[in-house]
Amino acid sequence: MLRKQKEELVEQFSGQLKDMGVLIVVQQSGMTVAEMTTLRGRMRDAGASFRVTKNRLAKIAIEGTQFENARELFQGPTAVAFSVDPVAAAKVCVAYANANSKFSIVGGVIGERVMDAAAVEQLSKLPSLDEFRAKIVGLLNAPATKLVTVLPQPATQLATLVGAPQAKLARVFGAYGASGG
Questions:
Q1: Which residues contact 75 (CB under 8 A, 6 or more apart)?
Q2: Is residue 124 classed exposed, middle or buried when 0-12, 13-18 and 19+ CB atoms within 10 A define those classes?
Q3: DSSP secondary-structure letter at 25?
Q4: How far is residue 10's CA from residue 23's CA, in Å, rounded to a whole number?
Q5: What DSSP designation does 28 have?
Q6: What is the three-class DSSP state of 109?
Q7: What is the C-alpha separation between 4 and 11, in angstroms, rounded?
């Protein structure tokens, strides 16, 4: 790879990382092209990205980003997963690592905090950003739904209460009127 190509690669990778919430470093030695394609597809479906890296270039690319604390994680055949949603990339990495022995998690960085593999696994157990938003919307909608069902009840009860004497009177007078009196 020419120096110019390396500079472009570093610049592109560094630019991609600027808006990301998490960077996860993995080792993927011996994976087939089909396995890599499957992994990339799962990452894309989760809103995350995955790329194989050269350690030296990755270390240069993370300089000046929120992930520069990850320098010590880049050893051996590495690749990185990253996403805006801090949980999305972690979920896919942990699930894939559990299913494929050629793929293992080295660690990661969220914010400026370096995580080991166990911390990445714990992160993967949290709800994703979309799941969290859905729960919040559900919680916000629940009181409104309850309010809508409770508010009409006094009016319904009042109508029933008001309607009851009329029904009784109608039965009484209906029965009286039917007898001809």
A1: 55, 106
A2: buried
A3: E
A4: 15
A5: -
A6: strand
A7: 11
The residues, any chain, with a CB within 8 Å of residue 161's CB and separated by 6 or more, are: none
Count CA within 13 A, CB hemisphere, residue 136. Answer: 7
User: Lowest-confidence range among 5-9, 40-44, 94-98?
Assistant: 5-9
97-155, pLDDT tens digit by residue?
A: 999 999 999 999 988 889 999 999 998 888 777 776 777 777 776 666 665 665 666 66
Whole-number Å distance between alpha carbons of 72 and 108:
10
17-29: pLDDT as tens digits = 888 889 999 998 8
Give Rg (Cα) of the chain. 31
